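Title: Comparing notes on inverse folding

I've been comparing how different people in this forum approach sequence design from structure. To keep things fair, I'm posting one structure and asking everyone to reply with a full sequence. Here's the target:
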């Protein structure tokens, strides 16, 4: 039996404990035909990343599930790994090189990639080490990287498969272009924000009709340099006569046609719109229908191109000012209105994106989206909370073809080779030396790389060896629970679902568990601009990893944001200290020859049966809560049991027996204390792994680690319903007496007579000794009805009893009346709440029967208490 240190110091315990776990191989999942598998794949953090509160929340939830399932007997695998994060990583390396006065073009592709891999080796593992500080019980022997050999093989295989199926193509389409990152980005990578701007109304003269014009409104006047038409609705009587005619494009003196198209909304603005196919997705489609030219007037870095006439070379916003000034000078500007509109920005750098026609690689999404939509609609995959199903379906049902090419060097290079002889494309999983079409050896590979999300979409199965039919893939796939934030349902979750279904024929997971954001104490989103970010490592350093984890789970519910505060972390640390001190007390009262085990039923006292029954119920409720991802409810129940039931009641009740002369009674008390501590540690372990491991290993008879001990199960032999109710009433009375003594500042050393009025004296007779000691009573008297003089008496009330304490000389009568009236008001408020629920026919008919009955029972108890409080008020006059 190991002796616990006097004070719990997380810094002293956590690192050695984690080393013990990893060296012992306790995180490693084995393929065991006698066990069911349970698999989670970690959302791979970027190699550029540093642990933040979002990571801490996400990985704490995953670790809770893995530790829970491992203790339940599953072969539980948590696959860790990191993402190459193409845009972010390349930007970081380029910035570092810029400080040295070197560009990536100076180095060339091969040397730049060597430098990128060196950077990855040096910094890419930083976040992994930080995750270990959190206590993450991943199988590190299976750690993966999105650009490792196996994952890269999967990427090439998928590209070739989709290309052969006609689901990957190369073509010119409108894409989202980031002028800062200098690459295309997908729709999912565009963040929209409301911005204040203007609506410029511009007059386009009608050719051949002097003095006449049509007015077009635009939020981006600089793009008019690329206008190739104006459009009206074919049924708009105002403009039917203009269809087929031309107008003069202001400033450019270029005639452009008037076309009729159903896309135009007759009710919006003037009913006339400018058509700029190269810089607007809707205009692009109109242009294709009318065979209009595509005139690109913006360069990759958002300057006006040579097609922009005298504005060529101007930065886009400078060009806007110049264009507006010239429109005004030429009397083409009709009016300017203030206008708020949604503007797309790059999710990485925040730069306003440019819709731009570009030659890129795309994935056809409609054939892939169909099965992915159905898999969620038919319940094969469930979102928790269910409301996020709508977010997913909205994204998938409105999806457009996915732009997968990126103008970057770091990433998976597109496996397409162009033949300089015949112009055909060869797509291959290997590295071809000749054209697959004409046999020419003059071929060159596409310069672009694939979207980072292309590889992470394969994560649930590529990490297990796919496309090879590995033993890991057969045993651990499909995975079970995906834990992630709601912000990447479109980015990542949707793509994993269609990928898993299309490539493996199976849904990649059965449940998507969504957590919210971690906000500051005031409910604000953490950001650099607000300066309110909290470093999880700082919290770990001050309070310990268990306190951080407990804080992130306490009060949390799936899908909802939570507030983090130093006060909450401090409270979690205090809970850890309370548990530690309780464990030390128990072990200090164990003899060297103590033999642990479930105590004999015949030796149990009423208080033992009460606490064992409470614990037994706790086991069932906590298990059910975790199974339903109600982590906040689970930890609150464990907290209440350990702090209140175990520490404040069970240990206090046991002290007399531990120091008494009844050897059997003392041994029973010890067995109960150790049995409960052992079980509660196991229930708490998924949430606070470090302290529970340290205490568990100090318990007599403990195994090598708590991690693989069997999860507690409800036991009918521990169900003492009658005794639980009986002693529960004793506890309620003692608690009421203690509360009133505390409110009146009665010194603990001052004891007084306690008269208990009750119709159920048997409940209190068995607990008389406990009442006397814990309620600071000189003597306890049980009566069916109090017949004495209530004057000078302090009264307390429970659902089944009233307590009379003759210590009026210690209190102020008016103050006591005020307290009773306050208690009456609270009780009446509770009655009103319960009554309102029971009066709601919809609630009573739809709620589970046990829930309705529970509320009825609570109402009855509250009404009984109301009666007794009123009697106490009347007694004081």
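Reply #1:
Here's my take.
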């Amino acid at each position: 039996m190991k002796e616990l240190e006097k004070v719990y110091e997380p810094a002293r315990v956590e690192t050695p404990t984690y080393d013990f776990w990893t060296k012992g191989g306790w995180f490693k999942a084995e393929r065991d035909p006698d066990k069911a598998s349970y698999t989670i794949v970690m959302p791979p953090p970027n190699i550029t990343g540093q642990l933040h509160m979002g990571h801490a929340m996400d990985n704490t939830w995953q670790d809770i599930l893995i530790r829970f399932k491992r203790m339940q007997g599953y072969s539980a695998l948590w696959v860790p790994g990191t993402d190459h994060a193409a845009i972010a990583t390349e930007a970081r390396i380029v910035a570092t090189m810029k400080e040295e006065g070197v560009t990536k073009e100076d180095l060339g592709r091969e040397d730049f990639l060597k430098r990128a891999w060196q950077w990855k080796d040096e910094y890419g593992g930083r976040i992994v080490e930080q995750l270990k500080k959190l206590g993450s019980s991943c199988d590190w022997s299976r750690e993966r990287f999105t650009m490792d050999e196996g994952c890269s093989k999967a990427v090439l295989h998928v590209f070739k498969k989709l290309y052969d199926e006609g689901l990957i193509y190369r073509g010119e389409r409108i894409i989202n272009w980031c002028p800062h990152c200098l690459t295309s980005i997908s729709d999912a990578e565009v963040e929209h924000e409301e911005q204040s701007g203007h609506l410029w109304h511009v007059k386009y003269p009608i050719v051949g009709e002097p003095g006449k014009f049509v007015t077009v409104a635009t939020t981006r006047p600089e793009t008019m340099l690329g206008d190739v038409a104006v459009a009206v609705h074919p049924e708009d009587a105002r403009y039917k006569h203009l269809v087929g005619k031309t107008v003069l494009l202001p400033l450019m003196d270029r005639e452009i046609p008037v076309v009729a198209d159903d896309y135009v909304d007759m009710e919006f603005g003037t009913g006339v719109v400018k058509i700029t196919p190269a810089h607007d997705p809707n205009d692009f489609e109109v242009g294709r229908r009318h065979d209009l030219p595509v005139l690109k007037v913006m360069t990759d870095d958002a300057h006006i191109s040579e097609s922009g006439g005298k504005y060529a070379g101007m930065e886009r916003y400078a060009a806007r000012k110049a264009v507006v000034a010239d429109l005004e000078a030429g009397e083409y500007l009709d009016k300017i209105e203030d206008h708020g509109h949604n503007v797309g920005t790059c999710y990485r750098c925040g730069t306003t994106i440019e819709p731009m026609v570009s030659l890129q690689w795309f994935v056809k999404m409609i054939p892939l989206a169909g099965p992915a939509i159905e898999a969620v609609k038919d319940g094969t995959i469930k979102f928790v909370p269910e409301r996020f199903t709508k977010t997913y379906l909205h994204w998938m049902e409105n999806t457009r073809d996915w732009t997968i090419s990126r103008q970057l060097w770091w990433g998976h290079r597109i496996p397409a080779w162009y033949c300089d002889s015949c112009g055909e494309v060869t797509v291959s999983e290997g590295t071809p030396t000749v054209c697959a079409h004409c046999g020419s050896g003059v071929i060159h590979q596409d310069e672009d790389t694939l979207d980072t999300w292309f590889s992470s979409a394969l994560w649930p199965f590529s990490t297990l060896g796919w496309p090879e039919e590995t033993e890991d893939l057969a045993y651990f796939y499909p995975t079970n629970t995906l834990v992630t934030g709601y912000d990447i349902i479109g980015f990542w979750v949707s793509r994993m679902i269609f990928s898993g279904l299309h490539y493996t024929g199976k849904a990649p997971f059965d449940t998507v568990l969504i957590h919210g954001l971690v906000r500051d104490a005031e409910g604000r989103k953490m950001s650099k601009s607000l300066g309110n970010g909290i470093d999880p490592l700082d919290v770990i350093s001050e309070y310990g990893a268990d306190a951080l984890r407990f804080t992130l789970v306490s009060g949390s519910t799936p899908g909802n944001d939570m507030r983090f505060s130093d006060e909450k972390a401090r409270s979690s640390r205090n809970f850890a200290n309370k548990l530690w001190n309780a464990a030390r007390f128990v072990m200090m009262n164990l003899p060297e020859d103590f033999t642990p085990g479930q105590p004999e039923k015949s030796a149990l006292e009423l208080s033992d049966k009460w606490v064992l029954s409470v614990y037994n119920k706790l086991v069932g409720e906590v298990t059910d809560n975790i199974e339903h991802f109600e982590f906040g409810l689970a930890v609150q129940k464990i907290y209440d049991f350990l702090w209140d039931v175990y520490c404040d009641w069970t240990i206090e009740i046991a002290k007399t027996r531990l120091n008494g002369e009844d050897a059997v009674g003392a041994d029973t008390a010890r067995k109960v204390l150790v049995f409960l501590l052992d079980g509660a540690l196991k229930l708490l372990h998924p949430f606070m792994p470090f302290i529970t491991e340290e205490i568990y290993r100090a318990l007599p008879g403990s195994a090598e680690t708590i991690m693989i001990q069997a999860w507690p199960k409800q036991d009918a032999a521990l169900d003492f319903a009658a005794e639980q109710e009986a002693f529960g009433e004793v506890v309620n009375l003692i608690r009421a007496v203690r509360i009133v003594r505390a409110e009146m500042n009665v010194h603990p050393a001052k004891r007084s007579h306690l008269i208990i009025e009750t119709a159920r004296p048997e409940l209190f007779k068995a607990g008389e000794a406990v009442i006397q000691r814990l309620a600071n009573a000189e003597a306890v008297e049980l009566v069916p009805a109090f017949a004495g003089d209530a004057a000078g008496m302090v009264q307390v009330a429970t659902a089944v009893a009233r307590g009379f304490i003759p210590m009026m000389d210690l209190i102020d009568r008016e103050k006591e009346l005020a307290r009773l009236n306050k208690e009456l008001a609270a009780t009446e408020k509770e009655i009103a709440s319960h009554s309102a629920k029971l009066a709601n026919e919809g609630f009573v008919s739809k709620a589970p029967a046990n829930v309705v009955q529970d509320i009825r029972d609570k109402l009855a108890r509250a009404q009984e208490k109301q009666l007794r409080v009123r009697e106490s008020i009347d007694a004081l006059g």
